[in-house]
Amino acid sequence: MTRVGLVGAGGVAQRHARVLSSLPDVQVAAVTDVVPDAAAALAAPLGARVVPDVAALLGEPVDAVYVCVPPFAHGPAEHAVIEAGLPLFVEKPISLDIGAAQEISDAIDERGLLTAVGHHWRYLAVVEQARTLLAGREVRLVTGAWLDKVPPVGWWPLREKSGGPIVEQAAHVLDLARHLAGEVTSVTAAGNGTPPAGDIDGATAAVLRFANGAVGTLAATCVLGWKERAGLEIYADGLAVRVSETGLTVRDADGERTVDSDPETARVAVDRAFIAAVRGEEQDIRVPYAEALRTHTLALAVAASASDGETRDVRP
Ligand SMILES: NC(=O)c1ccc[n+]([C@@H]2O[C@H](COP(=O)([O-])OP(=O)(O)OC[C@H]3O[C@@H](n4cnc5c(N)ncnc54)[C@H](O)[C@@H]3O)[C@@H](O)[C@H]2O)c1
């Protein structure tokens, strides 16, 4: 039996708890949240123990810990889990600033710990298919978008709590851009400065330069009452690829093909891969902490550039 501890019991923790409980021989054993009622609500149907804090969680017999707190709350939990030498799953975004994330990354490296971050899009079969199609091709243009509403959590529209829509949400698209088109070397962005709520930009537009010569754009807005779309388009000579959580569309000289995708499969796969690695059964962790740090660096650079209009050099 693999026993998992959860730090944070909100929306995404509930999702991980549901998936983990559906995997064979995995048990959500203990839960902590600064809102004890939230921990209790998650724990009760699973028969998990509710504990007052991370120290108490680490006093339980757990084999791995998920940190599912909002962006502003990262740091103390990760350091405690690292100190305990346990495998660590962290939800994105991994922090609000680069310094805190770099410290966590260094501490992980020092201890040689197993980690994973919730960039589950990398487990989509359609993303693998897009990568195969693009292999050996010269990518020319990348256009990413996250066009959505403000999610219904109080901290989200506050810049100092969430980092804003690029860091909090569009990071999934930036991670996919890196995965499919390679590293970004510089970004220049603009924000429209009019928040739909709180103090975040209602819209952001960015221009990206890639190491391989490709150019790209990222567009984000949170002023809609619904999720319009979130995904990435990639263009190479004679090839157009459109990929998202819900499907892949490919067009080339032979015409257009579409493959549907169920987002749930990747949400299950990311947890299954982490647990398999914890058990030493299989190594298929696609975004360990250090890799997420690279995407986070890029997202922070886009957000910073949107604030002051200055180009940011993000060469690795
Ligand atoms: N990978 C994905 O697809 C995905 C999906 C949803 C959310 N997320 C990410 O997960 C994170 C959390 O999102 P959410 O929707 O669950 O938010 P949420 O507000 O629903 O839940 C966060 C929970 O963390 C608790 N919390 C806050 N500070 C804490 C601390 N120091 N210690 C313990 N608990 C603490 C809160 O009380 C709350 O219950 C966000 O960064 C979000 O971007 C990722």
Automatic annotation (TrEMBL):
Residue span, GFO/IDH/MocA-like oxidoreductase domain: 138-236
Q: Name one Pfam family in it.
A: GFO_IDH_MocA_C3
Residue ranges of domain Gfo/Idh/MocA-like oxidoreductase N-terminal in the record: 3-119
Superkingdom to which the source organism belongs: Bacteria
The name under which this protein is listed is Dehydrogenase
The organism is Catenuloplanes nepalensis
